[in-house]
Amino acid sequence: MTSGPISxxxxxxxxxxxxPPPAAVNPEATESQNxxxxxxxxxxxxxxxxxxxxxxxxxxxxxPGNLAALDADEQRVVEQLKARDREVRxxxxxxxxxxxxxxxxxxxxTYQTGPDGQRYAVGGEVGIESARVPGDPEATIARAxxxxxxxxxxxxxxAQDRSVAVAATAxxxxxxxxxxxxxxxxxxxxxxSVFNDIAASTGENQEDETRSSDAIVEFDTFA
Length: 223
Hints:
By secondary structure, this protein is mostly helical. Helices cover 54% and strands 10% of the residues.
């Protein structure tokens, strides 16, 4: 897993409608009228395809509540966009809830303007801290486990989410190996320390016995 923030995101899906057929050219109409009709058709065909996030475009769009002015295909696209918006926001909220303090920011979204003039979220992502905890494999393991839970928290994880989860698992396994090595080294050092303590204690006992032996004085007894 790379160090620093990474992104876990919802897959982008953009509902579209088929563009209307080219305007018929009226042979009796003037050339300027035909050009105006062609321009109107091009504008209509592009209004769903362009996922612009321009605020000024949103403000100048048609009345969002005027669904009656939309044809059946446009109303279908609006319903698809509404469903997609709910799905994306729930997806990113699941990431945030599981990531907790590891989230580096709130969710950010990619929007598409629908035929009704409203903007709908069609993609999103959440930044999450992925750096290892230096010198602390236990903390690194705990962080990797949280990252994996956050990546797989949504009901339908994206390909990016699964990739982040795989990387987190690799980081966890590496940290577990480091922790096992660290524990083994600590046990070896502890065994050496215990051996040295026993050796030192044995040496002191031998010295005490020698001193006691030197202190004994024997006397001959005569009748």
